[in-house]
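Propose amino acids for all 548 sites.
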C-alpha cells in the first residue's frame, strides 16, 4: 500500500485552519523506532493511532533500483545499479562522515530548513525521514543492563517485558552465549546470521581464553543485530556486503516496514508531509499545530492524547517552543563514541572476496570498576569495503604502490566501535531562540580521555588473550552526539520539576502529552540505545493510564 494515499490532512487557508478532531484520536509524532514502538503498544490495546510525520522517503529512481535488486541474486545485479546504491558514502581515517541510505541523504534532508541550528563541536543531526534514523542505523540491538538504571524512576526489571514485546515484531539475530548472562535475549525466536571467517577466528580465540578473559572483566559473544535471516518473501541473507549502504532485501529492521504493516491492517492512519511546531492542552484535549512541509499551510489536529517521538533534537525543540522557553539551556547527555582499530596476530586470506554481512560481528563488554562503574560496550567489525576505501583515501596517489601491503593489513584488521556510559562522556548544551534557531554547544567530558587511555592499556595488556593488539595512537574520538546515542534533555523523575518528565514521559504541567524517545532518558548507558528506546516507548504506550 502506498503510504502517500493514507492521509487525512485537513487544512484551510494560511490564516484559517480547520482542526481535525476525533473524540478518541490518539496521535504519535514521528515514525522512527520510538514512534513505531509506541504505536504498536497502543494498537495492541485496540486503539487507533494517527501518526503525524514529515516522512521523507527514498527518491523514486533509487527506490526502483533497490526494488530491481531485491528481485535478483547479487550475481545478477547490474554494475550501474550497484554503483548507484553505493554512491555518496565516503570513508576516511576518522570513519564515515555521515551514513546514507542506498546512496541517498533523504534521512537527513531538509534538516537545516525544518530545524535551523548553530552547532559547535556537535555530531548529532535530526532525521525527517520515514522510519527516522532507522534507515541508517547499524542494527546493533543489545538491551540496557537493569543495574545501570539506578537514576531511572522505574524498577530494575520493569523494562524486561517490554523488550520482549518489541522483539515480537523486530527480528533478532545472535546467539544464546555468554552475553545472555548479563544481557537477556528476551526472545525465543533468536536467529543466526553467518559470521565472517575473521569473526569465527576471533571467537575461537576468545572461547579458548574464556576463563582468563572473564577474570579480567571481559564478556563476549556474537553481535545481537535487528536483522532477520529471511525477509517476508523468504529471501535469505545473500552475504552481499552492502549492509553499510542499505540491504536491498530489507533484512535489516526498519520502522517504516512496521508502519506499512500497521497502515495495511487499518490500525494506523499515516499523515506525512506535516511538520509539527507546537502543542498545547486545552479542555481535556491536545491541540497539535503544524505546517505543511511543501506549501507551508498551517495544520491543526486535536487529539485526546499525544506521544512525541521526533528524536531528541526535534522533540526537545518542540517542547521548548510549546512552552515558550526561549533562552533557557537544557543539557543533552551522550554516550561517548570512539573508533579503535586492532590488528589480529594472524590474518585471514581473501577477506575482500568473501561473501559476508558487514554489520558488527562480535560484542565485547568490559566490566572493570577500575575503569568505569558501568559497562563499556565494544562492537567489533571485520572486513568492510569501506576500510579499503579509507586506506586508499589516506594514501592518495601512493595507494597503488602499497596495494599489497594494504591487502595484508586488511587480512588482520578489526575495527572497534565503542561507547562509554554518559557519566564518563561529554554533553551538549541546547538553547532555543525566538527565531526558531537552536544553539548546540558540545562540551567534552573531562573523564573521557583518561578512561579510554586506561581501556587501551587494558586491551594491550591482555593482547595475548585477545590475540589482537589495539592501535591506540589511531583511536578516533567522536564529538558529542557523533554516535547518535544521546538524550536526556527532559529526564524522567519520580517527582518531576521544570524541564523534567514523569515516569510516563509527561512534562511537568501536562497530563496528556508523553515524550517517548531518548529525550526522557535520565542516563545513557554504554550498550546500544535503539532497543532500549523502543522498549521504553512501548512501556509508556502500553501503560493503562497513558492509553486512556
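Proposal:
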Amino acid at each position: 500500500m502506498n503510504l502517500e494515499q493514507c492521509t487525512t490532512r485537513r487544512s484551510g487557508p494560511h490564516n484559517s485552519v480547520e482542526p481535525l478532531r476525533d473524540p478518541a484520536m490518539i496521535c504519535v509524532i514521528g515514525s522512527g523506532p520510538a514512534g513505531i514502538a509506541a504505536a504498536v503498544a497502543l494498537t495492541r490495546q485496540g486503539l487507533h493511532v494517527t501518526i503525524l510525520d514529515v516522512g521523507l522517503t527514498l527518491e523514486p529512481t533509487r527506490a526502483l533500483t533497490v526494488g530491481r535488486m531485491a528481485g535478483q541474486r547479487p550475481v545478477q545485479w547490474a554494475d550501474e545499479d550497484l554503483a548507484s546504491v553505493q554512491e555518496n558514502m565516503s570513508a576516511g581515517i576518522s570513519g564515515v562522515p555521515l551514513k546514507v541510505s542506498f546512496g541517498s541523504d533523504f534521512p537527513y534532508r531538509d534538516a537545516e530548513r525544518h530545524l535551523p541550528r548553530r552547532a559547535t563541536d556537535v555530531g548529532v543531526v535530526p532525521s525527517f525521514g520515514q522510519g527516522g534514523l532507522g534507515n541508517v542505523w547499524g542494527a546493533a540491538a543489545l538491551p540496557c543492563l537493569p543495574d545501570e538504571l539506578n537514576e531511572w524512576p522505574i524498577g530494575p526489571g520493569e523494562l524486561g517485558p517490554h523488550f520482549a514485546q518489541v522483539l515480537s515484531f523486530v527480528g533478532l539475530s545472535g546467539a544464546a552465549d555468554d552475553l545472555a548472562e548479563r544481557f537477556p535475549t528476551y526472545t525465543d525466536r533468536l536467529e543466526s546470521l553467518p559470521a565472517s571467517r575473521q569473526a569465527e577466528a576471533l571467537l575461537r580465540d576468545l572461547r579458548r581464553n574464556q576463563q582468563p578473559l572473564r577474570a579480567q572483566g571481559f564478556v563476549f559473544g556474537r553481535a545481537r543485530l535487528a536483522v532477520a535471516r529471511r525477509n517476508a518473501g523468504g529471501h535469505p541473507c545473500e552475504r552481499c556486503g552492502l549492509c553499510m549502504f542499505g540491504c536491498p532485501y530489507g533484512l535489516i529492521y526498519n520502522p517504516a516496514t512496521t508502519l506499512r504493516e500497521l497502515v495495511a491492517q487499518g490500525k494506523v492512519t499515516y499523515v506525512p508531509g506535516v511538520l509539527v511546531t507546537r502543542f498545547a492542552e486545552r479542555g481535556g484535549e491536545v491541540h497539535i499545530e503544524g505546517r505543511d512541509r511543501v506549501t507551508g499551510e498551517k495544520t491543526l489536529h486535536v487529539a485526546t492524547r499525544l506521544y512525541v517521538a521526533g528524536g531528541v533534537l526535534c522533540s526537545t525543540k518542540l517542547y521548548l517552543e510549546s512552552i515558550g522557553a526561549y533562552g533557557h539551556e537544557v543539557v543533552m547527555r551522550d554516550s561517548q563514541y570512539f573508533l579503535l582499530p586492532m590488528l589480529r596476530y594472524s590474518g585471514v586470506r581473501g577477506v575482500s572476496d568473501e561473501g559476508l554481512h558487514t554489520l558488527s560481528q562480535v560484542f565485547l563488554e568490559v566490566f572493570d570498576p577500575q575503569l568505569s562503574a558501568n559497562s563499556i560496550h565494544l562492537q567489533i567489525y571485520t572486513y568492510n569495503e569501506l576500510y579499503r576505501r579509507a586506506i586508499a583515501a589516506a594514501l592518495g596517489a601512493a595507494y597503488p604502490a602499497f596495494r599489497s601491503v594494504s591487502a595484508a593489513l586488511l587480512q588482520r584488521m578489526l575495527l572497534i566501535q565503542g561507547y562509554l556510559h554518559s557519566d564518563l562522556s561529554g554533553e551538549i548544551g541546547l538553547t532555543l531562540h525566538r527565531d526558531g534557531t537552536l544553539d548546540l554547544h558540545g562540551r567534552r567530558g573531562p573523564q573521557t580521555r583518561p578512561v579510554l587511555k586506561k581501556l587501551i592499556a587494558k586491551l594491550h595488556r591482555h593482547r595475548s588473550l585477545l590475540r589482537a593488539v589495539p592501535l591506540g595512537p589511531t583511536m578516533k574520538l567522536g564529538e558529542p552526539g557523533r554516535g547518535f546515542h544521546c538524550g536526556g534533555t527532559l529526564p524522567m523523575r519520580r517527582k518531576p520539576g521544570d524541564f523534567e518528565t514523569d515516569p510516563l514521559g509527561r512534562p511537568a504541567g501536562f497530563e496528556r502529552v508523553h515524550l517517548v524517545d531518548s529525550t526522557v532518558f535520565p542516563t545513557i548507558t554504554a550498550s546500544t540505545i535503539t532497543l532500549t528506546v523502543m522498549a521504553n516507548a512501548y512501556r509508556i504506550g502500553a501503560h493503562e493510564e497513558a492509553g486512556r
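The chain is about 25% helix and 20% strand. The longest helix spans residues 448-461.
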